[in-house]
């Protein structure tokens, strides 16, 4: 099989060189790497100003190589072309294959992709049906449990679809798994009340408390989740949110705070931009079933295969009897914003003139990466993400209304 892959790589390299020559793009192939479901060809350009033209070669390369999809991305000083392999070459992993207990999957050349709370206190696990989104969340939960003792990490799990039952009676649980509406509301109140307590008492060194919610399409207690997202980091309170449709409508005022992004296959390019926070990530061209992107600062992403948590992993989890804790509804849970940075994002406004300029780049099919947004508009990641999200919702609304008008005519 390795010999066949080497032969494929030589053919793909020749095709890429031919396309470069035809488009008058100066550059050379620097590296060929094996991904779980793709071969990655990395090319260094002679003239970085040709990056836009080079990225547009993904479709011609897919056609020439007779493969389903090619994803082209800027990768440090290179342009990488991820050429999808036939299914017979796909690799699947379980957590037993991981070299690090903090890892959630393996990428190019079996390099581990890790999960933690230090750099990204709140994380989003997103993807359409059959993307492997819930499996990614479960693997991350096992990774988190593996890094802490039950005294150092407490979990509050919200699971309305019965997907997280393998964690039942895990010793790290602060409450029984919440699945019924009343229990879900109680679980979120529990975490919000703990945030109030820690802030009021200026508590330091408390156990890390993680609220993990799978499928938050019908978001309960939005105000309390918003409070946790904005102020939780300073008090070691974190969010892990799983959803099929991430937008400011389904995740009001907390989407920007979910800085850890793990995104599987989505429905279209607009959904890709919304869930990754960047245009041009092409999450809609992933293969599904655990094929994921881990989004990094600077508009880059690492493509990896989620390592499944198996029954063997769940059998090793420490177990204990978990007693319910009932939190009475408070009339108002209102905390003033912290004066110091707590991991939340400041409220940002959209300038319509600038949004129009974003739309112009979109209309010309020019991928507006975070580096280009910084150079053109002075936008860093947070503000760039806000504009990409606003643009995606604008385009979706425009298309929907245009369709409705045409149907009425």
UniProtKB/TrEMBL annotation:
Chain ranges of the FtsK domain: 110-273
UniProt keyword list: ATP-binding, Nucleotide-binding
CDD domains: TrwB_TraG_TraD_VirD4
GO MF annotation terms: ATP binding; DNA binding
Keyword Ribosomal protein: no
Nucleus in keyword set: no
InterPro entries reported for this sequence: FtsK/SpoIIIE/SftA (IPR050206), FtsK_dom (IPR002543), P-loop_NTPase (IPR027417)
Protein name (database record): Putative DNA translocase
Organism: viral metagenome
Lineage: unclassified sequences, metagenomes, organismal metagenomes
């Amino acid at each position: 099989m390795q010999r066949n892959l080497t032969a494929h790589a030589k053919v793909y390299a020749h095709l890429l060189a031919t396309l470069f020559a035809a488009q008058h793009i100066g550059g050379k192939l620097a590296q060929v790497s094996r991904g779980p479901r793709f071969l990655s060809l990395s090319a260094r350009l002679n003239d970085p100003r040709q990056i836009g033209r080079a990225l547009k070669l993904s479709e011609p390369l897919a056609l020439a190589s007779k493969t389903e999809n090619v994803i082209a991305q800027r990768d440090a000083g290179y342009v990488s072309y991820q050429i999808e392999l036939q299914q017979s070459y796909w690799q699947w992993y379980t957590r037993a294959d991981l070299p690090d207990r903090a890892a959630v999957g393996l990428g190019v050349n079996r390099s581990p992709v890790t999960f933690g709370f230090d750099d990204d206190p709140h994380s989003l696990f997103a993807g359409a049906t059959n993307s492997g989104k819930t499996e990614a969340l479960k693997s991350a939960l096992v990774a988190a449990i593996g890094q802490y003792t039950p005294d150092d990490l407490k979990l509050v799990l919200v699971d309305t679809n019965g997907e997280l039952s393998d964690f039942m009676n895990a010793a790290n649980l602060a409450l029984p798994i919440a699945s019924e509406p009343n229990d879900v509301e109680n679980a979120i109140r529990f975490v919000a009340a703990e945030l109030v307590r820690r802030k009021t008492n200026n508590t330091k060194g408390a156990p890390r408390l993680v609220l993990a919610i799978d499928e938050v399409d019908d978001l309960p207690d939005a105000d309390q989740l918003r409070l946790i997202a904005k102020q939780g980091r300073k008090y070691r309170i974190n969010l892990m949110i799983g959803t099929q449709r991430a937008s400011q409508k389904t995740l009001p005022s907390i989407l920007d705070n979910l800085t850890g992004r793990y995104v599987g296959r989505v429905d279209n390019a607009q959904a890709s931009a919304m869930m990754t926070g960047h245009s041009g990530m092409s999450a809609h061209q992933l293969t599904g079933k655990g094929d994921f992107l881990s989004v990094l600062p600077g508009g880059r992403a690492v493509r990896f295969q989620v390592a499944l948590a198996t029954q063997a992993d769940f059998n090793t989890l420490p177990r204990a009897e978990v007693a319910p804790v009932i939190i009475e509804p408070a009339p108002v849970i209102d905390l003033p914003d912290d004066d110091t940075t707590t991991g939340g994002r400041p409220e940002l406004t959209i300038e319509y003139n600038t949004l129009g300029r974003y739309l112009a780049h979109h209309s010309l099919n020019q991928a507006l990466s975070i580096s280009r947004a910084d150079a053109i508009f002075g936008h860093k990641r947070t503000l760039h993400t806000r504009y990409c999200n606003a643009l995606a919702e604008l385009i979706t609304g425009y298309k929907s209304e245009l369709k409705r008008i045409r149907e009425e005519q």
